[in-house]
Amino acid sequence: MAEAHAPTAHAQHAPQGFIRKYIFSLDHKVIGKQYYFLALFSVFVGLLLSILMRWHLVWPDAHIPLLDKLSPVGAPGGLMTPEYYLSLMTMHGTIMIFFVLTTAPQSGFGNYFLPIQIGAEDMAFPRLNMLSFWVTLAALLTLLSSFFVSDGPPLAGWTAYPPLSAVGSVSGPGEGLGQDLWVISIALFCVGALLGALNFIATTLELRTRGMKLMRLPLTCWAWFITAIVGLLSFAVLFAAGVLLLLDRVGGTSFFVPAGLIVSDKILSNHSGGSPLLYQHLFWFFGHPEVYIAILPGMGITSHILSCFSRKPIFGYRAMTYSLMAIGFLSFTVWGHHMFVSGMSPYTAFAFSVMTMAIGVPSAIKTFNWLGTLWGGRLRLTTAMLFSIGFVSLFVSGGLSGLFLAQPPVDVNLHATYFVVGHFHLVMGVAAIFAMFGGTFYWFPKMFGRMMNETLGKIHFWLTFVGVYAIFMPMHYLGVEGNVRRYSTFIDDFMQPLLPVHKFMSIWAFIVGGAQLIFIFNLFWSMFKGEKAGINPWESTSLEWTVPSPPPHDNFAGKIPVVYHGPYEYGVPGAEKDYIMQDSPEVVAESH
Amino acid sequence: MALAVALVVTLITLISVGIFVAKVYWFPVDISTHGAAMDHQFLLTLIICGVIFVAAQLGLAYFVWRYRDKGDGRKATYSHGNNKLEATWTIAAAIVFIGLNFLGYNIWAKMHFTGAAPGALKIQVQAQQFAFYFRYPGPDGEFGPTHLEKVDDAIGNFFGLDRAHDQASKDDIVTATLGIPVNRPVELILRSQDVEHSFFVRELRMQQDIVPGMEIPIHFTATEEALKHNGGRYEIVCTQLCGLGHYKMRAFLQVMTEQDYEKWLQTQAAAQ
């Protein structure tokens, strides 16, 4: 296959005009950077929102500087209203999940490095690639514009359950134009994600260079490939759910709204026959695979970095690829575990529960194999490596709390509490972010031709690593106490003794938030002032480390790389160096 | 650096587990007949996850320290893995995870696969932005029909009853507190007037979403334990995001002796 479809050799020159070179670029590397910076901007917006929320939760009477300028209605005099809190929470979740976790690891790094790692000169469909970025940007701008509408941003959460999200402003502030914009933004995002997924699948299958057999793909490429398949199958369903929700809101339909509702003392006579649970099924049919869309690329990146800096082949390459496939497949069979207490049939709850426990098995295989990779290695503790080690630690912690939530009789008492918030932030939020940090430190030299500062990187790592545990581990304890999530203020008697824990978490949230400025400084400072990077500063084996930093417009300057080895030939006995590049014709008896 | 990673990961692990072991934060008292089995399943999961957590984190910490590059020219072990080990931990993980799940099967089945005991006290629960109301069928044991157009919060007709015309509605008792007798099976019928809500009482080990357009039955029995704490009074909170007042949507569950319950119900009936 790979041989038959190897790209033809001809050097491609970069377009000269600024607009075609940097704005409407067809170059996957530029588009990858565009996605990366879109996610970087988004993550800081999302982070700021979370800091505002943490402030309000513990000091509800303290004025937040400048907030009243941003929203005189949502925060009169700098004091946040309950509805504005929920809006910030909704926007935080939506921005982080879609525009950060789905965007940076897959569309950002994937766009930049998938073609180079498989030895191609670009993605399969460059125009589609450009289009998917611009649609995603339009989705982000649509979402952010809801901050500025008179009714305020939506407040129905990132899950936007109807009828709250479906009946319009009659159900309260934030549910007017803001919610419309939210639905339109998500639908647009789905279009961008679908186009991107098609492109990733076609590129991986069709554009591998000579000798790049499937079983020689770096695990990053496997992860991007499987994530793309999962995305293709799940975003299509979310798109449908979004369109139906929009029709319920503006088209007078009743897909999700039943008859006989009285909202704000008004009988809603224009709706009948809809099912709120139908929406939940559609949403989570996307929503659970989405968790893996966020984390699979991170798993690929972490595997890649751990092997490189352990100077040792990845432990169980085949098991790693099969477990990625198993996770991808099983991710479509577990959505009901979000709905154990939703009112769906309790019999199906048990089936979903068994499948959810089953998906823990490939996740466990990956963890064992990461530990197996470290075992017997010669660990170089660079910042990229530290973040990858952090990823493993966080993935274990957050993954294990999932075993509680996967069991209906245990979930009953933890559902909708901070236990869930702690769980998913650790396992898919922070772990995925750690993979992005790891990926940034690892690939920055290739992307920008300079090295990032390791000292600043390590300070940033330590503050973030300790900080995220200090924020998200206590949430598990709060959840066991029954502390309900999505409350703007804790007025219930039983929550009063828990407020000091919230203060502790908020203070750490401010520290971790501040620590990210170190990263930003390091990122931009290094772009211009960092030490010049060579072709292969980390002594890695994959193809991106065979081309100049940054790579030329067509990646391989018109040459066709030929691949002779698997991607993780480190520490091969008898080899000339400590590692064998994938395109090195060196023959060593023991290499695979 | 390797030592620092090892120490910090170890410290985080020990503190995280220590707080659970010392039960610094724990479930509140259990006042239901089904709760003990749930708490047991939680504890069992905690022990299993705790062991895996400690083993994985300490393994990570140890490996980072043990296999750090000391600059002594030692080469890494060249190994692509071990199929036997791979198969062993796959099978072990599958047995532990799925087995654990099956152990909890009975608890769920008892809660959901059988209905309430015959003769259970039936109470309707209505959720709306941002309050809970409760309806008892009265001496005739029947809930009167509800009429959308009669719903009027201002005069306290939350359910839309037509007491003048509907015989079955005449003796219905509507309250703002959920009063129940101890040791008697109770069946709640959950319904919502507007958007999604949820019914959560920590001490009852009971959480169920309330979905507009559906009537969802749940059943439980409060034990004597309920009378021993907080004067039998427990918070019912909404756990499904329902709008700006979500955080303050709550009511109280009042567990009483059979006699106190009858007296309370009479007082409530008189106030209709």
If you had to describe this structure to a student in words, what would you say it looks like?
The complex is a heterodimer of chains A (592) and B (272). Chain A is mainly alpha-helical and 592 residues long. Chain A folds into three domains: 240 residues, Cytochrome C Oxidase, Chain A (Up-down Bundle); 197 residues, Cytochrome C Oxidase, Chain A (Up-down Bundle); 57 residues, no CATH class. Chain A has 16 helices and two strands. In chain A, strand 1 and strand 2 form a beta hairpin. Chain A is globular, with a radius of gyration of 24 Å. The two termini of chain A are 20 Å apart. With 272 residues, chain B is of the alpha+beta class. Chain B folds into two domains: 92 residues, no CATH class; 152 residues, Sandwich (Immunoglobulin-like). Helix content of chain B is 35%, strand content 21%. Chain B contains five helices and ten strands; from the N terminus they run ααααββββββββββα. Chain B has a five-stranded mixed beta sheet with strand order 3-2-1-5-8. In chain B, strands 4-10-9 form a three-stranded mixed beta sheet. A two-stranded antiparallel ribbon of chain B has the order 6-7. Chain B is elongated and about 95 Å long. Classes of the chains: A mainly alpha (592), B alpha+beta (272). At the A-B interface, helix 4, strand 1, helix 9, helix 10 and helix 11 of A face helix 1, helix 2, helix 3, helix 4 and strand 7 of B.
